[in-house]
Design goal:
By secondary structure, this protein is mainly α. It has one domain. Helix content is 62%, strand content 0%. It has five helices and no strands. Helix 3 packs across helix 4 and helix 4 packs across helix 5. It is globular and about 35 Å long. The protein starts with a helix and ends with a helix.
């Protein structure tokens, strides 16, 4: 279940979820939420997501991606956050 803060965060970053229909944006999976924010958001957006979800949860969602899902991340983003979560989470 999503917290009201997380739902507001998704509403505030509506444009980052351009591939998801408007009526389904607040119900996106955690994997899609993390992917869109890390790929298309600013560093401040990433920090806010980590604050709302917790670094362990964001790291867990990020680390679970396999196969073709890894290819959804830009290579430099995947590399940076792999190193970041290995060090801080």
């Amino acid at each position: 279940m999503r917290t009201p803060e997380l739902k507001q965060f998704i509403r505030d970053h509506n444009a980052l979820f351009w591939s998801i229909p408007n009526e389904k944006k607040e119900d996106v999976s955690e994997a899609a939420l993390v992917e869109h924010i890390l790929n298309y958001g600013t560093l401040a957006d990433c920090r806010e997501l980590i604050r709302l979800m917790g670094i362990k949860k964001v790291s867990s969602v990020f680390q679970k991606v396999q196969g073709r899902q890894k290819m959804n991340y830009f290579p430099e983003i995947y590399n940076f956050f792999s190193l970041y979560f290995a060090h801080y989470a």
